[in-house]
Amino acid sequence: MLRCFEDLASALAPQRCPGCGGRGDPLCPECLGALTPPPPAAPPAGIERWSAAYADTGAAREIIARVKYRNARAALPWIATATHAAAVVLGPSDVVTWVPTTARRRRARGFDHAELLARRVAQMAGHRAVATLDRLDDCAQTDRVGAVRRGGPRLSVRGPAGIAGWRILVVDDVATTGASLSSAAGALRVAGAREVVAATFARTPLRPAGPA
Ligand SMILES: [Zn+2]
Question: Ligand 1 centre from 57 Cα, in Å?
Fold first, then answer.
């Protein structure tokens, strides 16, 4: 009930730009114009190709934080449109999937933002969205530091997924180290996926292209 009330309140309130606090739907023209393209970066292990809509800075970072931590889901369609546009350059896939958030966060937020985003992107692309992955750990990536975080979440492919031979698009909001995408790709490939590509709304410049 509270969530319904919050949804109603946020639907009736004027949209505030997450970048500057001015009026925006969801971003004001100035903050929209200030978004920067994602930094070039080699895809993480197991991911054939990847793309992102924006660099993970400024208003792009703030709008994701609002959806994740303040339940501002009104921005999701816009985020999905941008993510879908980024995914188009990767070519057609058989299905769209996502890295599930931890059970703890899902309980706390009442939704899995990655799933909501992936389902919307799939709808726009005319693909099926399939829950292919289960999370074996319950530790959010942002709760981790350094070396542990680079290891990525422990994932397994759902038994009846039947993904052999598929080209799979993994959708996520932000790629930071790419560890989550890499974990997903590893599990999906072991289960027979032909190719795994990834599209994210934002990307953090931690993996510069070129020699390591
Ligand atoms: Zn603004």
Answer: 13
